[in-house]
Predict the 3D structure of the following.
Amino acid sequence: MRIVLGVGGGIAAYKVASLLRLFTEAGHDVTVIPTEASTRFVGTATWEALSGNPVSNSVFDDVHLVNHVRLGHEADLVVVAPATADLLAKAVTGQAGDLLTNTLLMAHGPVLFAPAMHTEMWQHAATRANVETLRTRGAAVLEPASGRLTGADSGPGRLPEPQAIFEAAMALVQGRSDYQLPLAGRTVTISAGGTREPLDPVRFLGNRSSGKQGVALAVAARNAGATVRLLAAHMEVPAPAGVEVQRVETALELREAALAAAAGSDVVIMSAAVADFRPAEVSDTKIKKRDDTADPVITLVRNPDILQELVEQRNGSRSGAGQLIVGFAAETGDSQGDVLAYAEAKLQRKGCDLLVVNHVGTDKVFGQDSNAVVILSRAGSEPQEASGTKTEVSEAIIRRISFELNRVSPRA
């Protein structure tokens, strides 16, 4: 596929090198057209090296090839990233002062804009009107991500992650309707891994969680356009790129981090394996094994119910209206009931919106690359099953979350 990749003059231009790499590694022929301003951030040599094609932003280079007409005619897809407020305005008014704006006027195929700018610029009435005009004309304009901007400011205006733009571009070319990214503009907090409760300086009470499912959820949410905060307990896999990571160890540390992060989140997914109990006392020195003393007795106390506290915090806050809270239940059946019976009771007791249930065991779920879950809803809808790799299961969970968000509080 022949792709024209237009690069606007914003600090986020450096991220577009990764987007270009995704396109070329997928086998596409990419011509990069940077604006003059963008070359102050990333030079043309970078684009030529990564694309394997010559790079220009002038209509007067290679005039005999009539590039200002040819590139738009021949492109199967045009992607503009970052699409600055200036570029969006020029596209709306049909300006043709350089090679990129000429190409946009001549484009016959689908066009995708990935905006990036300061929050006030994105929210300005002029920019919002320009975005709506472009969408009315058939162009796809993504919602920017939320998060840290240039300087100390934070808010909507970040360039979506390159992987998310790539997924949206491929969906657009394939004629799918999901190119707008279902979680664009949303903030999602996800806990992952297993907590560890110290006994002494060298020992702890832990569990078998590897963090694979939580990391896969973070990737799926990121690819759906969300700003992702990952609260990472002990994990056997690295945290993914493009997400904010906060490290925690104990259940009490996770509780503090989760309550703080949830206050500014649209979705909270508690997929971490949190210890139900912790030692009542933690020894400052290693507990010694001595022949002349009795075996130690370890007294356990309950850890706080983080999921239930998150629900209570949401329900008691005006700003929490519309927030979706998702719990995880790693269950085993016994003579008193099966896995789903325990999970249904937990769902009602905790008060979360969705509960993702899996049947765990020594060789099930923990540390594995595949999973099988049932998604229960407090609203009473039919249980939904999802199985496959943890990536596939995560994508199914994120799709369900997107559906629930749009059903309860549709975005304009």
In short: The longest helix spans residues 390-408. The radius of gyration is 25 Å. The chain has two domains: 2-173, 187-286+293-408. Residues 187-286+293-408 form a domain with the Rossmann fold fold (CATH 3.40.50.10300).
